[in-house]
């Protein structure tokens, strides 16, 4: 793929600042599960409508459906030191598993649902 460079008349490229994930019926329950897994810093909370988190080391990934939990269209991925312990904490708090533990080439991974179609994927490097 050829490298594309803006021309003088092209607008300046934007800066990706956030990813909004629709969580139904509100953000509070999804936020509680995310807090248990990664404890990100909350930067904005607007009731149950919007919660923004600081994520200085965030990577945005485009993934094939085979790399996502079944039925997920969005996955928030959290690296954990002990997958089974993290999964036990989340499911013990009522999070619904999104399948079982999967052994990948470089990691163990599992996921829980934040909202229909939105998974919180945990992974433990090997």
CATH topology: 2,3-Dihydroxybiphenyl 1,2-Dioxygenase, domain 1
| Number of spatially distinct domains | 1
| Gross morphology | globular
Strand order in the largest sheet: 3-6-5-4
Description:
The protein is α+β, with helices and mostly antiparallel strands and 126 residues long. The protein has a single domain, classed as 2,3-Dihydroxybiphenyl 1,2-Dioxygenase, domain 1. The chain is built from two helices and six strands; from the N terminus they run αβββαβββ. It has helices at residues 27-38, 83-92; strands spanning 41-46, 50-54, 74-79, 102-103, 107-115, 118-125. The strands form two sheets. It has a four-stranded mixed sheet. Strands 1-2 form a two-stranded antiparallel ribbon. The longest helix has 12 residues, at 27-38. The radius of gyration is 17 Å and the shape is globular. It starts with 26 loop residues before the first helix and ends with a strand. The relative contact order is 0.20. The model has no long low-confidence stretch (mean pLDDT 83).
